[in-house]
Amino acid sequence: YTQVNLNAFPFTRRVRRKEPKSKDKPMAHSPLSEAHKAALRSCRVKLEESLDVDYILARCLQDDVISQQMKENIEAKSTRNQKCSAFLDILLTRGQQAFNNFIAALSVNYSFLSVPLERELRVKALSIAKASLVHANEIMVDRKEADEEEVEISRASVENIKKLMIQLRKTLGMPTSTVSGKGKIMRSSSMNKLSDAHKAALRSSRIDIEESLEVQDILPRCIQDGMITQRMKATVLAHPTRHERCSAFLDILETRGKKAFDIFVSALHDDYHFLKLPLKRELRIQALA
Questions:
Q1: Which of 35, 83, 127, 256 has the least CB density, counted as fewest CB within 10 Å?
Q2: Which Gene3D superfamilies has this protein been placed in (predicted)?
Q3: What fold characterizes domain 195-288?
Q4: CA-wise closest residue to 178 among 169, 190, 187
């Protein structure tokens, strides 16, 4: 008796058919916007007081609001309030479609919660849109050194904003002929924090700034103008290398307000003009993005 290795003959090998890979479901499409998150935060106390998530978990699992593992983590909590709090924490990490499915699940037996939440979402969306336009207006006031590319970007962005405004007015049933570009710039102490545009501009320019800026050259001016405190200055100077000092300074700057940002840009003027102009240009672009 002779044992034959069938694998030696290609035509006798058992071919294992590759099963098509199952595609994981996306995380419910687009991530939650700031408006969605703000609406959830505004309604959270009422939701935690009134919602028994056990009644909606099955539907939320079916509609991909949560996974089986998430469901088990929620059910492991001991009280109704803790379960609801855990559910809402998870919902904040999900996408807009998950949010919409949550609203649909609420509307069956908890319409007194779903209706205010939807209303709050609309209010927050308009409030954030208005604030973004205010920030853009404030940033554009200082628009001086604009090259041709930036002018084209600005023009296209403004045209898109106009179209969106017209569409929004139609959606709200408002006259579209009264859209005007003549409006006073709103200024409020509540808007003194760095906007997303400021932060994005800093992140985009950070590598260039860290490579070139010796912060010790501008610290006296920044202290004098109230941009940083003596304690912050000491924290910056405690770092051994120029790069680390600059990185620490920029970390602090992101926690300060728009006035502090303007002071920083002004302090760059004398010796670091080559950093100042690209940073201001990037700020204008990010404001219209």
A1: 127
A2: Death Domain, Fas
A3: Death Domain, Fas (1.10.533)
A4: 169
Of the candidates 258, 266, 260, 271, the residue with the CA atom closest to the CA atom of residue 213: 271
How would DSSP label each residue in 170-233?
HHTT--STT--S--PPP--GGG-BPPHHHHHHHHHHHHHHHHH--GGGTHHHHHHTTSS-HHHH
Domains 34-123 and 195-288 share a fold: yes
Note the pLDDT of residue 146: 64
Contact call for residues 46 and 116 (beta carbons, < 8 A): yes
Angle at 168 between CA 164 and CA 169, to 5 degrees: 120
CATH pick for 34-123 out of 1.20.58.760, 1.10.533.10, 3.10.270.10, 1.10.260.40: 1.10.533.10
Residues 6+ apart with CB under 8 A from 186: 134, 137
Does the global pTM surpass 0.85?
no
The reported pLDDT for the residue numbered 12 is 46
CA distances from 95 to 22, 36, 125, 162, 229 (A): 21, 10, 16, 28, 40
Q: Where are the alpha helices (DSSP H) in 27-110?
A: 34-50, 57-62, 68-75, 80-91, 96-109
Sign of the alpha-carbon dihedral angle for 196, 197, 199, 200: positive
Give me the residue spans of the domains in the chain: 34-123, 195-288
C-alpha 138/C-alpha 120 separation (Å) is 27
Amino acid occupying residue 100: N
Question: What is the Cα–Cα distance from 188 to 183, expressed in whole angstroms?
Answer: 15
Cα distance between residue 130 and residue 133, in whole Å: 5
State how far the Cα of 255 lies from the Cα of 135, in Å rounded to an integer. 17
